[in-house]
């Protein structure tokens, strides 16, 4: 069973605003209101691929109620903890200004509410997979992902971490099954701009030697690279297609990898499904859909192992 954790879910208010002007009244041309959060996105794409999963997290106020209502309407299995105070966040994303967004802070999580989530996670069993993805609320310590992993250590539970900065670096010594930095996040960890393949492989290899079992690096339009646990390196360009929405493509990639891994336990197959799912997400209005993923998998040529990395 796969479980995802989204500590700070949101409603994403996605708008198209032609000729946006600061200091003036702007009017939208198109609007969407969708549930958001990296773990939630992973759950939704896993649903598309027919992989059973449960989404854990926190919700608060009327926004939290709407997040859960929309997820249940999408047939997502949700097991959120309702917070006693505050309101789940609303994120504003300007669709026609790629990368321009205003993200809310989100509600505070009390010590007792955090304990309730840990109690849910403590019930995971051997063979389960846990996805820890996204930002950590300011009311929780930055090393909260490491706390969860330490609690689950030695139980044969595969933990996937999709986070940035210290939240990612801090879990490496707990041997996560998979981490998925993008090129910019990988470069930020080492304070350098990653311009070519050798730089990317060098930095990804350092994270693997520090404990990550599999390192999947998303390269946007350039595809992706995987350093697998057995020492193999896989690379693939992105399939051809029109970029429509890059938001959530990385989450689709994580879901694709997990779905592929569950199906065959083969890193090459999981990697190619990850690339197909990430690309399908980028070519879609929202997240990757099963028929697109299947089509792109069929179009992609098998990528051979490019070598061994030590």
Q: Roughly how much helix do the residues carry, as a percent range?
A: 25-40%
Shape verdict: globular
Structural class by helix and strand composition: alpha/beta
Sheet bearing the most strands, described? 10 strands, mixed
The overall pLDDT average reads 90
The number of helical elements comes to 10
What is the H-and-E element order? EEEHEHEEEHEHEHEHHEEEHHHE
Measured on Cα atoms, how large is the radius of gyration?
Answer: 19 Å
Task: Give the percentage of residues in beta strands.
Answer: 15-25%
- Taking the alpha carbons of the first and last residues, their distance comes to 32 Å
> Strand order across the biggest sheet?
5-4-1-8-9-10-11-12-13-14
Q: Which ranges are low-confidence, i.e. pLDDT below 50, for 5 or more consecutive residues?
A: none
Please count the beta strands (DSSP E, at least 2 residues each): 14
Characterise this structure.
By secondary structure, this protein is an alpha/beta fold. The mean pLDDT is 90. The chain is built from ten helices and 14 strands. Helices cover 36% and strands 22% of the residues. 43% of the residues are buried. Helix 1 packs across helix 8 and helix 8 packs antiparallel against helix 9 (267-282). It has a ten-stranded mixed sheet with strand order 5-4-1-8-9-10-11-12-13-14, sandwiched between helices. The protein has helices at 38-48, 61-73, 111-121, 144-152, 165-169, 183-189, 197-209, 249-264, 267-282, 290-299, and strands spanning 2-6, 10-16, 30-36, 53-59, 78-82, 89-94, 101-102, 129-133, 158-162, 178-179, 214-218, 224-227, 232-236, 305-308.
């Amino acid at each position: 069973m796969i479980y995802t954790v989204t500590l700070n879910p949101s409603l994403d208010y996605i708008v198209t605003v032609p000729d946006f002007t600061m200091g003036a009244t702007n009017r939208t041309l198109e609007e969407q209101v969708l549930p958001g959060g990296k773990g939630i996105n992973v759950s939704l794409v896993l649903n598309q691929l027919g992989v059973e999963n449960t989404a854990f997290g926190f919700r608060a106020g009327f926004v939290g109620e709407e997040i859960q209502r929309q997820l249940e309407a999408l047939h997502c299995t949700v097991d959120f903890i309702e917070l006693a105070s505050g309101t789940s966040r609303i994120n504003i994303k300007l669709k026609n200004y790629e990368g321009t967004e205003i993200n809310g802070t989100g509600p505070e999580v009390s010590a007792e509410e955090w304990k309730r989530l840990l109690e849910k996670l403590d019930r995971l069993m051997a063979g389960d997979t846990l996805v820890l993805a996204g930002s950590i609320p300011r009311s929780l310590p930055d090393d909260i992902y490491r706390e969860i992993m330490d609690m689950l250590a030695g139980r044969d539970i595969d933990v996937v971490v999709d986070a940035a900065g210290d939240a990612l670096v801090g879990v490496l010594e707990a041997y996560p099954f998979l981490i998925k930095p993008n090129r910019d996040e990988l470069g930020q960890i080492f304070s350098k701009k990653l311009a070519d393949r050798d730089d990317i492989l060098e930095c990804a290899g350092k994270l693997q030697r520090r404990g990550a079992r599999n390192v999947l690096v998303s390269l946007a339009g350039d595809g992706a690279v995987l350093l697998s646990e057995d020492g193999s390196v896989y690379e693939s360009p992105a399939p051809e297609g029109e970029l429509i929405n890059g938001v959530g493509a990385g989450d689709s990639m994580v879901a694709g990898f997990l779905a592929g891994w569950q199906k065959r336990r083969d890193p090459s197959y999981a990697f190619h499904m990850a690339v197909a799912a990430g690309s399908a997400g980028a070519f879609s209005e929202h997240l990757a859909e099963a028929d697109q993923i299947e089509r792109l998998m069929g179009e992609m040529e098998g990528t051979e192992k490019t070598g061994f990395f030590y």
